[in-house]
Design goal:
Elements (H helix, E strand, L loop, with lengths): L1 E7 L8 H13 L3 E6 L13 E6 L11 H9 L7 E7 L5 H14 L3 E8 L2 H8 L5
Parallel strand pairs: 1-2, 1-3, 3-4, 4-5
């Protein structure tokens, strides 16, 4: 299956990209063709071409569970996401992680995506294990 992983970090230069790369490694180990797209620099117009879209994000503030501005911009550019299956992953960075995950899923569903899997990623090794569960 062709999978796009959209990485939406809290800041442009984030050290958390290793978590996204671990998710890619896990999905590739299961035989999927995976492309990692950075929400700050990537183009969301390519997203409709993929069979599955996984979004991994960090909340921007400690409180309130706010998603990065780049996430809404990139998802909005991907016209044709209506009915597209996807996964919402949130990198645990602080308190109110549940609220942030709900905000992430809401942002994806606002674009018409069907979120059929969501989880909070605790570490890079946890991300790789989650990636191996795609399609099973």
């Amino acid at each position: 299956m062709r999978v796009a992983i959209l990485w939406a970090s809290a800041k442009r230069a984030s050290a958390g990209a290793e978590t996204a790369r671990s998710l890619v490694r896990g999905m590739e180990a299961m035989g999927h063709q995976v492309d990692l797209i950075d929400a700050w620099t990537g183009d969301g117009t390519r997203l409709p071409a993929y069979g599955y879209v996984a979004v991994i994000a960090e909340q921007t503030g400690l409180f309130g569970g706010v998603m990065p501005e780049s996430l809404a911009r990139t998802l909005g550019a991907g016209r044709g996401l209506v009915g597209k299956k996807g996964a919402a992953f949130l990198k645990k960075t602080g308190p109110f992680t549940g609220r942030a995950l709900a905000n992430l899923m809401r942002a994806m569903e606002r674009e018409g995506m069907v979120v059929n899997w969501s989880d909070i990623i605790l570490s890079a090794s946890h991300a790789e294990a989650l990636g191996k569960r795609i399609g099973t």
